[in-house]
């Protein structure tokens, strides 16, 4: 799946403090945004997307809160694509594809396994100043 995100017509941005309640708020916002965009809650991609999103937000809170008091979730969608990115201001960029083969069943490994099983893609995009990153997930609908 190699769809330029800027071509997706639907967009929403959510900025939250890096605290535990951000996970719940991000999930609820995702459900609301998808409903507004006409993507049914029962669509087979929605539950895995919510799980992936929850894990990425949790990771940002756990690993980046010291240097990133806020996280941002960016949503985009089109007729056959749902994409979302979780951004924080921590410079560490995880190796996504090595997480799939990692031992111990890491959360990032689960994110990658779900994403790939759905036919989606994942990418880490560093900020221009090198002091933050976004992890983007793109899933087919």
TrEMBL record:
Specify whether DNA damage is a keyword of the entry: no
In its keyword annotation, does this UniProt entry include Transferase? yes
Which InterPro entries does the annotation name?
A: Anti-sigma-factor_SerPK, HATPase_C_sf, HATPase_dom
| Entry-linked Pfam families | HATPase_c
Q: Which UniProt keywords apply?
A: ATP-binding, Kinase, Nucleotide-binding, Serine/threonine-protein kinase, Transferase
Q: Which residues cross the membrane?
A: none
The residue ranges of the Histidine kinase/HSP90-like ATPase domain are 51-141
Task: List the GO molecular function terms.
Answer: ATP binding
Q: Which PANTHER family match?
A: ANTI-SIGMA-F FACTOR RSBW, ANTI-SIGMA-F FACTOR RSBW-RELATED
| Protein's recorded name | ATP-binding protein
Organism of origin: Streptomyces mauvecolor
Q: Where is the organism placed in the taxonomic lineage, from the top? A: Bacteria, Bacillati, Actinomycetota, Actinomycetes, Kitasatosporales
